[in-house]
Amino acid sequence: MRIRAGFHLGYECQQPTAMLLALNIHPSRRVDLLTEQVLTFDRPIEAWGYQDVFGNACSRIVAPPGLTTISTEFEIYDTGLPDPIPEDAQQHLIQDLPDDVLVFLLGSRYCDTDRLSDFAWNTFSSTDLGWPRVKAILDFAHNRIAFNYQNADSLRTAFGGFNDRTGVCRDYAHLAITLCRCMNIPARYCTGYLGDIGVPKDHNPMDFSAWFEVYLGGRWHTVDARHNKPRIGRILMATGRDATDVALSTAFGPAILARFEVITDELPMGGDGQA
Asked: Could you tell me where the DSSP H helices lie in 40-130?
């Protein structure tokens, strides 16, 4: 299938402000692009790219005073298949994990494992290792938090979501990631596009989405505590320890998000039946 995706983000700055942007699709998805995906600016701005420590394709800019709009729009190929369920994937002993995976067992800014470790072991230690344990954690996080855009809080940690029992997709992800790490299952945060493909249309405006990946059976697997079922058409943008590492923008000075529009649509098949 073909998916059209993109955004228009407007930032209001009081003075020249350096910014880091994680707004490109992930390098692993660039092979699927059907059109070019580039960031454009409505003002003369020099942007230069770099790859961060997690392998994400990021950009650096200095936004001038006033309102700057950053945009992109592209088409991408997707298999149209739902997320695979790794039912037979085995959990690794810690000593058998690759070195670069170990960081995803540790606590981080929003994944406060020290506050949830005792609860996790008391609750999930009786489950079977591997996918059954991950599924138990997904079910718990999905049922623990009630989705509500009005209750979004950029300062809420996993422990905060556990106690508040409300939030948005990032809160589901942070809670489930933290519980997985407490149970020695490497887990990393993901952000990207997820349109209403194969599901009823959400009445809320389109937004970016957060999910996560677990490391089982020698590879990373996509899981989603908010929806708690396989979805179609995810377009990965970035991965990291938590939302800090994949923030859409990190501004080194005052910067107000003044415009926010996200596009994610399935396109009809071509006349020749090809996607």
From this structure: 113-124
Token pair, residue 76, equals 């991408």
Written as six digits, the tokens of 224 are 């989603």
Q: In what order do the strands lie in the sheet with 187-193?
A: 219-223, 209-216, 187-193, 235-240
Over 60: is that where the pLDDT of 62 sits? yes
pLDDT one-digit tens code per residue, 96-129: 999 999 999 999 999 999 999 999 999 999 999 9
Provide the pLDDT for residue 272.
Answer: 43
Local confidence band at 271 (pLDDT 50, 70, 90 cut-offs): very low
* Residue 156 CB coordination number (10 Å): 22
> How many CA atoms within 13 Å lie on the side-chain side of 249?
22
Average pLDDT over residues 181-189: 98
Cα of first residue to Cα of last residue in the chain, in angstroms, is 5
- Reported as a single tens digit per residue, the pLDDT across 33-43 is 999 999 999 99
- Show the tokens assigned to 175: 């809670």
Tell me the two tokens of residue 228: 């708690």
| Whether the Cβ atoms of residue 256 and residue 27 lie closer than 8 Å to each other | no
Instruction: Characterize the bridge pairing of strands 17-21 and 2-13.
Output: unpaired
Please, are residues 187 and 215 in contact by the beta-carbon 8 Å criterion?
A: yes
**H or E element that contains 139:** helix 131-144
DSSP states of 80-104 as a string?
-PPPPP-TTPPPPPGGGS-GGGGGG
Contact present, 255 and 63 (Cβ < 8 Å): yes
- pTM recorded for the entire structure: 0.95
> How many Cβ atoms sit within 10 Å of the Cβ of residue 226?
22
Specify whether the CB–CB gap between 242 and 177 falls below 8 A. Answer: yes
* 8 Å CB contact between 25 and 192: yes
